[in-house]
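Marked as duplicate of an earlier ticket. Keeping the data here for the record.
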Amino acid sequence: MNIKKAILFSLLVVAGTTAFAQSGNLRKAKAGLQKFQELQGAGSPELGKSSLESAKEAIDQAITHDKTKDDAETWTIYALVNANLATLEKSAEAAQAAEEGIKKATELDSDEKNKENITVAGQLLGQFNFGQGADAFNSQKYEEAYAAFDQALHYLPGDTTLLYYSGLSAIQKQDYPNAIKRYEELIPQKEFSQHKSVMIDLPKLYLSAKDTTNALEYAAKAAAEYPEDNDASVQNIELNLMTGNEDKIISDIENQIAKDANNKALHYYLGIAYSASDNNDKAIEAYKKAVEIDPNYVEANKNASATIINGVRDQLNALNEDKTLSNNDYSKRVEELKEQIKEALPYLEKVVELDSNDIDALRSLKGYYDFQQDEAKSAETQAKIEALQQ
């Protein structure tokens, strides 16, 4: 339900209400409420404040009068007047009075003649509590925010914005069970603007709650729901690798590739899975395949170069630690590594070509030239780095 429509709905319902044999105070309260709503609907709620206050004064008398104190409509108008006051003045006292009015009206409304107006009063209270929650959230009072959003959901069940911010508030106060509960309620709401974030964050919440089983389940669901999203797919891969499911996740990706061999993202994700499994040769092969499909695939170019460079770096570190090598053997092995690392250069150059402002790629490129002892290229690349830092 859209809470922004509550006030207009209230105007339509109350304006069409007809009552017979009503007392003067009830009649006066309804007239004042209707006048307020007309001005509110015209965008001037402050101009109608005096009418709402007059309605409040009249209805307070009506709820104690013998002729009207047990009338469902009396308590419905009482709830509507106070709910509007709560929203207009941000009054917790008026909100509490509205809650009492809703409860009493619901008990007395056996024929449900006032059901729609009781619902509207609840919508207004939901709107009030949403505002209270938003204020608390912005002030980083997450306990208060969660309580207010939770109360708003009582009157506006299923409202996606409320569910989302209720979940965020729970996360901020590390109440992971309630955060999970709210996010799970949002899963069917695929039209919600933050649906992808919810799906991707839910596995993280399960991990925070130390529930690895559900973290894996929902990571797989997020990856299936958003197959082209890098964060969703990488998370699914990483979680499976963390839990010792290397063979399963690699097998899953390879099975998908068998069905869709020209899907560059699948080859890229396979590279990530192999990299995480310390199988650099297979990872490089997968990244190369992704680049073959799309030469301008930045992430695949970047990972291909990084994996090649890191592999050479590891070998160089091992050489430096090997004290048994003669100087000639050491020099020979270094020259071999210089040849090996050349494989990374076209991928690095492509990354810089696609994004000349990628300072990390430029630093990697400079490191490459330094290792090759190409002073001119190194200086040229350093100048580009310094230009970006100015």
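See parent ticket for discussion. The two ends are 51 Å apart (CA to CA).
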